[in-house]
Amino acid sequence: MKEQPVVFKGTRKGLHVYISNDSDMSEILEAAAGKLRSGKPFFEGATVNLTFLGREFDSREQAQLLELFSRYMKPGSVDFQIQPVSGEKQENPTTDHYHSFNGIEEGMTRFVRGTVRSGQRIFYEGNIVIIGDVNPGGEVIAGGNILVLGTMRGIAHAGATGNPDAVVASYCLQPTQLRIAGYIARAPEGETEKPPYPEVAYIKQEQLFIEPYLPGKGKQTDYILNNKV
Amino acid sequence: MGEVIVITSGKGGVGKTTTTANIGTALALAGKKVVLIDADIGLRNLDVVMGLENRIVYDLVDAVEGVCRLKQALIRDKRFEGLYLLPAAQTRDKNAVSPAQMQKLCEELKEHFDFILIDSPAGIEQGFKNAIAGADKAIVVTVPEVSAVRDADRIIGLLAANELIEPKLIVNRLRMDMVKRGDMMNIEDTIDILGVDLLGVVPDDENIIVSSNRGEPVVTEERSLAGQAYRNISQRLLGKEVPLINMETEDTFMEKLRRLFSGKNNKRY
């Protein structure tokens, strides 16, 4: 069986792109473009450190690859590494999926101080904590949980890399749109009452629930923390 | 050294130009040396609102390109001591000047004036970037409409990215009768979303249109409510603490009675 020409792997240091040794350049570019297209909303606007692993590329091929990737994301550091043809098979990833973030209980967290305003986009592979508001038109996208210590009025996408255990919690949850993994919910039409208590959104039985998380009303919270679906 | 303040909004038609003209005039009336810069190259109208259109010989682009000396492009407003206008070019576009050139221009004007007010064009493109390039402070103008507030929010974000943090907010064209009926966003909601300091609230006033058409800023009219609001705003810019004007319209007897019993006082904006 011929291996896939291009395999993406998300790591703590950024995106690793494994490139098969026996594919030619046009095949590689085509496969990479396909993958980038399907992951477009995820990569969009993000600064990603890129590491290309595989055979040696000449400067023209390197430029081609970089040009393709920079159409979908802002490349941070870029590194080309040569990997031997064989012997390292076990190190190659077995899935072609951008690994979902697993640090829901504890893991990498980015803290953002200040208000996320319209047109701003906060992206992080791990959990995100916003110390401020998220206004309409602002977007927060996290591989893990999203916590807003203020009012959430924009778009939140928790578990964006495919983790349905992620939650979105806010002192005042009034999002335009709420997404967890592949699930999308939008605000009800018309005037909505401002919720008087902090709330948490999560996925249970393939449905998105929004419930208060205050002590005393915390049955749901216990459920989320102790019995993962 | 003077202070460069950019007046911006994102959305068009919320009253940037009117605000610039009126604050500038009010500051000049308060004895300050003021220059108004129209940064809306290609769509100039600050000169029209100021009634100085027929006196333009050179403009901002001429001054920047060295066609004339900066002093030659400045139009002195004969009605108000210490008030000058640097008009925009009408036959060029936003790319005719660069942010670096605007910065240099502002530095030069700072040495001769107390206040340099820049009227920014709508949008977030080149013209906006030019307008904010030389600014020390920013005033964001919005109207109590969802779309304008959304744009103001975006602008505040962009200003912060350009190190113009903590801009001041002017809520323009507020209609108390509509707010009372619940048909218009109120001030509290607007500030709650934008989270910036309020510099002033200007009531909707027909006089603005009349005075703009005549080329006479409304601040000169003692009895206009909007004029009073602009005078207060300029006093606040000078560091004085002025309470917001009472914009309650005349109430009917029944309304007064109802408020008396409900224990609510007149809201002061």
Annotate the secondary structure layout.
The complex is a heterodimer of chains A (229) and B (269).
Chain A: E1 6-11, E2 14-19, H1 25-38, H2 40-43, E3 47-54, H3 59-70, E4 74-82, E5 109-113, E6 121-124, E7 127-131, E8 139-142, E9 146-152, E10 155-158, E11 168-173, E12 177-180, E13 183-186, E14 199-204, E15 207-212, H4 219-226
Parallel strand pairs in A: 2-3, 3-4, 5-7, 6-8, 7-9, 8-10, 9-11, 10-12
Antiparallel strand pairs in A: 1-2, 11-14, 12-13, 14-15
Helix pairs in contact in A: 1-3
Chain B: E1 3-8, H1 16-29, E2 34-38, H2 46-50, H3 60-65, H4 70-73, E3 75-76, E4 83-86, H5 99-110, E5 115-119, H6 126-133, E6 137-142, H7 146-161, E7 168-174, H8 176-181, H9 187-194, E8 197-203, H10 206-214, H11 225-237, H12 253-262
Parallel strand pairs in B: 1-5, 1-6, 2-4, 2-5, 6-7, 7-8
Antiparallel strand pairs in B: 3-4
A few lines on this structure:
Chain A has 229 residues and is an alpha/beta fold.
What is the strand arrangement across the widest sheet of chain A?
5-7-9-11-14-15
Strand content of chain B: 15-25%
CATH architecture of chain B: 3-Layer(aba) Sandwich
Overall pLDDT of chain B: 91
Describe this structure in words.
The complex is a heterodimer of chains A (229) and B (269). Chain A contains four helices and 15 strands. Chain A is α/β, with parallel strands linked by helices and 229 residues long. In chain A, strand 12 and strand 13 form a beta hairpin. Chain A starts with 5 loop residues before the first strand and ends with a helix. With 269 residues, chain B is α/β, with parallel strands linked by helices. Chain B is 41% helix and 16% strand. In chain B, strands 3-4-2-5-1-6-7-8 form an eight-stranded mixed beta sheet, with helices on both faces. Chains A and B meet through loops of A and helix 7 and helix 9 of B.
